[in-house]
């Protein structure tokens, strides 16, 4: 039988297909040996039943004519073993008579069986809803074997012509071979026992089963992807993936012949949607089988720029040829090695920005760049390999130089590692001096600075490190924001910085014109006095000038400074005055402008903030005790003033940083932003491990405040009136009047409303102490601190409570009249952190109070008895208190409070003896002494 | 075969517009056909009033019941189906571009396809006079308002699903998709003239451990998917046997049952296989099964040679009956392949195959179970 040619006749379902052995019409023999194959020839196994020996078969002859020849049709159950043996025989040199067509189907059946032996059969439905096993899934190597075998199909193996074609056509080899392989696969799992075991005939019995109800079960969804081949020419090849088995990928060309209609329909519809994302795929849809389409270079360019992204978002992957180099990358390089090192960040300094292209991380040579720039195709031969070139990259190769950045912008880009180029976030790398500077800034300082000569104080270690940092940032012209917790000594650090800048030639900046020059401090009015005191105390000899109040003038450097220009001093002013006189202040040449409590300019649209920006300076430093990093817009306002240009303008800042970080919670952007601002922001907490041990358990600070105009007028009137009464009295009466005077003055210093006993007073803006208290509380509450506020007067405590409640601050009020159970509740609430501000009338601070949660104590007015004050302070500073306690004593400048505080400071021993009895001691003073004590003196 | 009748639920009351170009073409055919605009307008009102019941579409015919006052009229619209030859031409055009079918599957009618088919003499969309109304009402206009209402709603159906038009023209969606398969061919003379390369060299047969992990199938009513899994393994086993021997592993249905039960003990009950036969199959396949089933008389020479060996090994004296040599509760059966198949008598009094066959009777007799 093997000497006759075999032909495959597909049928539906596949297992009902047949193999026919026939007498070839072109037989050159005389017909004596093989005109009519019959069962005698089939051999001793199989094919014993069924067909008579004279089936007829219509085949196409080599001349294109149609012939009907004698044949023997065998079902696959019989053909499979027969062909298996024929394949073996064909390999046997002793059996030269196996017909090539039969040897071919023998090879095909062996291929099918080998795949079935690996378990590659799956149930499916034919287009007509019959049950059919299919030969699937196949590996790429299996598909290659199918293609190779199909290429070797002899014409006699497919001699049955297609219906309805004239002239006659034979079926294409590969679809016919795949149909045969599926027919074998459909035969193998079935049999009598299979049907018994399955209990139902579907997919088990040999007889065709019509099972439309299983269509959905058998149907596997598909998705498509596009494989690019090329580059000569580029082609798009459609690949089909089965959703149920992601490893199963078929070229459409392989899938189409054997696939069921549902699979083809799914794949076609998926392709149509892909073509909407990238239109060149429409070319596939114009073909009968959407297997592959040639792409123009412009298509590939489009695919590289936008197409692949759009396809990806449509769920369609693009696979590029593996032998095509695709790791051509571009990054932006800042600065260059040859330029001068950037030492001062003025607004005019520019930094070069260039695209640097690299292949596999290796920068391209100028020659390679030129070749890339001249490329007319999306592929270029670089380093002996085809390299895929995104047109955007080619453009970058042509236009390597980008718009230069200002030095500050470049530094920002170097710190974040990214920059916005043409509206897109691009990775950048700094080189040369810029990169070295970036590394230096990114590294916190290990070395503390040497304390400047002339500073009359010992700076703590962290203060020296802060000084070094401030010095470096300001001498680079970069500005900085020192945001240490209150009490860590920002003022004294700044004073040290001023001295340092005016006495040292900075080795880091040898080529600038030095850092010397006057320092302008802008601060809330309530802090003016404090600044002046601290400067006078820690930098004696340094000129201090208050630029405040009526008739204010700026010091003339030549006339106001003793010894000419050798010692530059401080000018102190308030935010209000600065806003009015910004133009005048702008005319001076400031070595340094300092904004204290810089949260006052956190609203960038305010007139104050705008005015502050108009004052030029060699360097700017912002001081604040509030954690500005919590609101990025506030942080922007401060850093954009200290280091203009670093963060960009506000809308861009919001779009690039604030929104991603605060709204989207984009971790990567937050991380980059931190890298950007960290060098410009120094914030130490009292609780930081390196800081806490350095802090004393208790720090006491006098907080001088100026009287308001109303207070000053009232004060002077009281002095005038009551001094007159005192002079005209003696004995008990006089002592009583002295006490009355002192009480009245203390009340005026506290608040005019207290003295005047106004029933429903307006409180804001009338008392220097109250303003400073607000200032302190803002900072303390921002730090999550807790504070005790002591006053001798219950009336004042009530005023404070009303005022603070109006400002939204929760308070507790404890005084002598508070019932004991309520006291305990109040203390409990404070200790639990429910109430951050505890107002205490000093008399009430008797026994049994334990207020260790407080880390700040404010003495709103003075008892003038240190022992009593200490006792009050100790309420907070008890055993169990882990936080250092800061004590703030509010002192009205130029008043009796101030005078007595000075006495206490200067001569503690004497004061102790004199003042041991408190107010009572003062009643012994003579009229002149008393007048000198209570007289209001100018603060300056 | 695929169902060529499709029902569509009645449209609720509400105004609708025909938006697609093919839906408009359908309405245009209706308007061109009509001599009187009155019934057309009434028909549209009826359609929008939701007076048309469920619409049935089948080759050549649309049908629905239309309510008109107290009466219900049975209304139809006839459209000539395409002939088989016309369908062949249409399917040939459909197969020319994969995008045509994709568009139809996305429920869009490609204009290019309709034009190309029309050029080839295959009218897909109706033209003047192609929509032939029929109604049980006694109105004399053509179409009557009932048929016009049906036509309006049919246009809405077409808008959403152009396959309705193909169904009216004679074929269901599944048939069209199946028919759209392109069959590529080669002219016979070319095929015969083309030189054919040698067959690729044969690949070695896969070893039994090359079998993939068996697939998992979703459960479905009417199929035992657990057995389907085993059939994949069994197909692999049969394929290995064919590759090794050139023949099926079983000669008949009984052998097939025994074979499957031997390979998959979990199927034994379902297959109702004789347990002794299963033991025999495991002992030595179809030959062992024959030894179990059929006593035979070996040739004289074989018997004599066996007796000599038996004595030489000083084995106990057996009782010999035809090919069966019995020693107490042990028995050796001489097989047609010249090997001895060991058996043991079980308490049920029957002989059970045990152990493996050997050419040497001594080994076979002493082989542990």
Describe this structure in words.
The complex is a heterodimer of chains A (940) and B (369). With 940 residues, chain A is an alpha/beta fold. In chain A, 41% of the residues lie in helices and 18% in strands. Chain A has five domains: 6-194, no CATH class; 219-319; 331-441, no CATH class; 461-682, Tandem AAA-ATPase domain (Rossmann fold, 3-Layer(aba) Sandwich), CATH 3.40.50.10810; 698-934, P-loop containing nucleotide triphosphate hydrolases (Rossmann fold). Chain A contains 35 helices and 33 strands. In chain A, strand 5 and strand 6 (131-135) form a beta hairpin. In chain A, helix 3 (100-117) crosses helix 5 (173-187), helix 25 packs antiparallel against helix 26 (731-750) and helix 32 (896-906) packs across helix 33 (908-915). Chain B has 369 residues and is of the alpha+beta class. Chain B is 44% helix and 14% strand. Chain B has helices at residues 21-33, 37-48, 84-96, 98-105, 111-119, 145-160, 163-168, 173-179, 188-193, 225-245, 253-263, 268-271, 275-293, 300-312, 361-366, and strands at 6-8, 55-58, 61-68, 71-78, 132-135, 185-187, 319-321, 324-327, 330-334, 340-345, 351-353. A five-stranded antiparallel sheet of chain B has the order 1-2-3-4-5. Chain B has a five-stranded antiparallel sheet with strand order 7-8-9-10-11. In chain B, strand 9 (330-334) and strand 10 (340-345) form a beta hairpin. In chain B, helix 1 (21-33) packs antiparallel against helix 6 (145-160), helix 2 (37-48) crosses helix 6 (145-160) and helix 11 (253-263) packs across helix 13 (275-293). Chains A and B meet through helix 2, helix 3, strand 5, helix 4 and strand 7 of A and helix 3, helix 4, helix 8, strand 6 and helix 9 of B. Chain B: This is SWIM zinc finger family protein. Chain B: Keywords: Metal-binding, Zinc, Zinc-finger. Chain B: It comes from Saccharothrix xinjiangensis. Chain B: Residues 120-155 form the SWIM-type domain.
